[in-house]
Amino acid sequence: MRPPAGRPWLARLNPLAKFAAAFLVTAGLIPVLDPVTAGVVLVAAAALLPVSGLGVRALVTLGGSLFLMSVSIGTINLVFGDEGALPALGTAVRLLAIALPSVLAGMTSDPTEVADALVQKLRLPERPALGVLAALRLVPLLAGQWRTLGLARRARGVESGGNPIAAVGIFAGKAFALLVRAIRTGTHLAAAMEARAFGSGGRSHARTSRWTAADTCLLVGTAAVLFLAHGLSMYLGTWRLLFG
């Protein structure tokens, strides 16, 4: 079964190709600490946003959170570090360049397609692959349960009233309640999957995980971008190893 042609280009790619590309980016950027190498990769990753199919709200939320994360880390390195502004800027840009491809791979991959790719392409046992699928499917459910817990406490008048100590206690109580619900849900789900013989082997697949030329192009393009980024940084004299 081929992915629907109406889906955005990035969403139609095999999840393994997207996660492998994100892994290549991570492996290629962790050893270096300069803004040029990471900046080239970041620009290339940002160029995929128009073909990701993510809405404006998701892009704003994603971009804002990643930007605040990188600025915070860069500021800490600038204020408390002793290596100057360029390494601090390199750290901030590198975090963005590493995080953006990984987030795009996760947000544009269907959980069922991820499980199919793990079983059919990587030949992983069905039990861990189905566990990954179940975990991804349960994330929205846990988010809804978190909101329900908050509304239930508000209905009973359990609020912090602006007291930060009370807010920490309320948060801890909600987190513990959510943990209990997650364990119960996971136990019931595991029992249901066991009763239906999931992971016992010899099962057919409703959908076929396909590796296309576009998936290969994504990996080749990622390697080319990394090679270009490192080469440009060396040419400009900004290339610097993390532990050099």
Automatic annotation (TrEMBL):
What is the official name of this protein in its record? Energy-coupling factor transport system permease protein
Database matches in Pfam families: CbiQ
Transmembrane feature ranges: 21-48, 54-80, 92-109, 217-236
Q: How does it sit in the membrane?
A: Multi-pass membrane protein
The answer to whether keyword Nucleus applies is: no
Q: Gene Ontology cellular component?
A: plasma membrane
* The keyword Cell membrane is assigned to this record: yes
The taxonomy runs: Bacteria, Bacillati, Actinomycetota, Actinomycetes, Streptosporangiales
